[in-house]
User: Fold this.
Amino acid sequence: MFLTQTRPYIFFVVNMFIKFFHKPQIPHLDAIKHLFRYIKRTIDLGIYYWRREANIFIGFSDVDWVKDLQDRKPTIGYVFRLGSSPTIWGSRKQPCNALSSIKVEYMVFTSGAKEAIWRRRLLAEIQIMDSSEPTKLMCDNQRACKEACR
Assistant:
């Protein structure tokens, strides 16, 4: 989990490993070894932050529908960038099934908005950015975006 803080692109793979952590099989252990070999080969990759960039804070949220055939619950996620570098990201299973796709998209959008409010206050407190400027939160569902902006 520590490596996901500096390498967000392995977050999904680590999340898949956690599902089988209580009873791993040989293929799971082989996949973990493969991930460790990849990390060893790409030790110089990571997230870099540049001081000269504008402190524009922007967020993206999305939902992944029923890729997990075990429980059919959607996976929700968000990522926030400060400048061009990702600073905050998260992903989790939705605890309940919704009756429509817009409800899940709206839940994801709300989760991202709550995270944005909390992080903006933190960034303003440590004087990285001005808290008066609004944060853009992007989503890919047009109906959910229109409902959230009303």
Summary: Residues 57-148 form one domain. The mean pLDDT is 77. The first helix runs from residue 11 to 19. The beta strands are 57-64, 75-82, 85-93, 136-138.
